[in-house]
């Protein structure tokens, strides 16, 4: 933390980046940190390859996050909510990272790969016990002597609130609640975040959720509850891919299932998988995600690869069946 704080203070032009398909923690952390660094007079730019979902429009200065930049011009690049630049979804990442001078990586996912060419240029703040990247940003801002404003509080509370599922998941801890209390003192409101993010659905979205929920199957062999949404479903309902955010958590409320999976046909011929489980079930879904080329946390992880559902469902089932032998961690 101290090393990271010193690095930040000594650099003027800073780029903040995050992973593709950015979620509330990624977006809240990027904006919270950007506001903080700007209060020190730094020149800050923010990057996300994918467009920011509309539900985050209420966050202060969200339009500051751009989907293009000239990577070579920054003295410091900060990567948030993931530990590897390939998660940003940018092409030519090897070339781009070789042009970076200093790198700071802040993340709360277990680091499941080692060594990259750019790792010798990095300072890391990686804490898999942290509920969110936002709570790590809060600690870093305090260490850097930055005053927490209402704007910063709104952004960081959104990160903590979304990654803990509204303080419901097992990663909800006293550090996060203490930070949240401080953010509320600055004027942030949990009800406002809930309204914008969790209770802001269109009719099309709810009907699409209905179709996906009606399709849930449970697999006796693996204990999995699974459903899917095709590209055609999304089009037929006039919905958007971002409308599916949160749906897997509803599938995960089936107490008899050991874990849940939502498969979505996304963007340009891609399949996205979201996996969830609950602490009391003793299952580590990140092992399944990793065997399908993704990653994440023990109880919330995901993967993405090229293809359509029709032609890949057999392969996905086979891999899940195989990794399933290995996902029990015991209680
Ligand atoms: P979600 O299901 O909400 O998209 O993602 C849940 C968790 O899994 C998040 O912590 C996210 O960072 C991680 N995750 C989702 N997709 C991928 C992926 O393709 N690769 C990796 N490494 N992690 C992912
Ligand atoms: Mn996160």
Explain what this protein looks like in three dimensions.
With 331 residues, the protein is of the alpha/beta class. The chain is 37% helix and 19% strand. The strands form two sheets. A six-stranded parallel beta sheet has the order 3-2-1-4-5-6, covered by helices on one side. Strands 7-8-9-10-12-11 form a six-stranded mixed beta sheet, sandwiched between helices. The longest helix is centred in the N-terminal third of the chain and has 16 residues, at 24-39. Manganese (II) ion is lined by residues 25, 81, 108, 132-133, 163. The site of manganese (II) ion (MN) has 6 residues, from loops.
Strands, total number: 12
Major sheet: 6 strands, parallel
What level of helicity do the residues show?
A: 25-40%
According to CATH, what is the class of the largest domain? Answer: Alpha Beta
Can you count the helices? 12
Classified in CATH, the superfamily of the largest domain is inorganic pyrophosphatase (n-terminal core)
Q: What name does the CATH topology of the largest domain carry? A: inorganic pyrophosphatase (n-terminal core)
Which residues sit in consecutive blocks of at least 5 with pLDDT less than 50? none
* Mean pLDDT across all amino acids: 95
Instruction: Record the strand order, biggest sheet.
Output: 3-2-1-4-5-6
Taken as a percent bin, the fraction of beta residues is: 15-25%
Radius of gyration: 20 Å
């Amino acid at each position: 933390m101290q090393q990271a704080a010193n690095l930040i203070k000594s650099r003027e032009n800073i780029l903040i980046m995050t992973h593709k398909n950015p979620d509330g923690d990624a977006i809240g952390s990027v904006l919270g940190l950007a506001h903080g660094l700007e209060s020190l007079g730094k020149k800050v730019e923010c990057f996300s390859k994918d467009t920011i979902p509309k539900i985050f429009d209420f966050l202060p200065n969200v339009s500051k996050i751009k989907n293009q930049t000239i990577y070579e011009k920054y003295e410091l690049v900060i990567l948030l909510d993931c530990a590897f630049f390939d998660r940003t979804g940018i092409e030519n990442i090897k070339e781009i990272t070789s042009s970076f001078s200093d790198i700071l990586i802040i993340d709360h996912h277990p680091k499941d790969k080692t060594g990259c060419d750019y790792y010798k240029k990095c300072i890391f703040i990686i804490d898999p016990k942290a509920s969110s990247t936002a709570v790590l940003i809060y600690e870093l801002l305090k260490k850097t002597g930055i005053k927490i404003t209402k704007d910063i509080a709104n952004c960081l509370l959104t990160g903590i609130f979304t990654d803990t599922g509204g303080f419901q998941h097992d990663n909800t801890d006293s550090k996060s609640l203490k930070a949240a209390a401080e953010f509320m003192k600055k004027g942030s409101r949990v009800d406002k975040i809930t309204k914008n993010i969790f209770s802001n659905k269109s009719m099309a979205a709810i009907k699409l959720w209905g179709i996906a929920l009606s399709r849930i199957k449970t697999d006796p062999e693996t204990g999995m509850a699974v459903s899917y949404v095709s590209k055609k479903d999304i089009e037929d309902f006039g919905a958007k891919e971002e409308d599916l955010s949160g749906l897997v958590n509803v599938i995960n409320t089936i107490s008899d299932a050991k874990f849940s999976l939502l498969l979505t046909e996304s963007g340009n011929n891609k399949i996205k998988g979201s996996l969830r489980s609950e602490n009391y079930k003793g299952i580590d879904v990140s092992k399944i995600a990793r065997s399908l080329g993704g990653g994440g946390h023990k109880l919330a992880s995901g993967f993405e690869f090229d293809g359509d559902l029709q032609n890949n469902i057999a392969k996905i089932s086979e891999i899940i069946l195989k990794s399933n032998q290995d996902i029990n961690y015991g209680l």
